[in-house]
Input
Amino acid sequence: MGLQRRSFLKLGVLGACALAAGGAAYRALRGPAAPGRFVLDGAARAALAAIVPAMLGEALPHGGDARSKALDGAIAGVDTAIRGLPLAAQQEVQDLFGLLALAPARRFVAGVKDGWPEADPAQVAAFLQAWRTHRLATLQTAYLALHDLILGAWYADAAHWAAIGYPGPLPELS
Output
């Protein structure tokens, strides 16, 4: 027995209402978004701590303390890069991290069932690949934003230039 048109429409309206209620509950719990500058809160930091290793892969050190320091440095670099964006772009990035922090949205859009600290690296890599090749341009743009922010922040640090064979800027331009 197939899904009839009327049932499909009812299901769509019910789903839209559920998303609206979830968004309203999120805003009620978290308060309205500040119109000012980007703030890297705990939820955004947790998402980045799961996403950065998936993006950087082998570029991150494998050792425990060195890896932890490199991850903290990468997250700080992303925060600095975001703060350098225009306010409108900062707000869009804030909205992206808000979406990734909201449990129903994280499950539906990113496919990450548990919180970011418990996310399996393979699961995070799969969600990033899905966003990279998604048919919706919005998710592709979100992937590209994360990609450019993370890799840009990583390779903005002169300590990582040797890994890609970049000798640094020409002395004449320094």
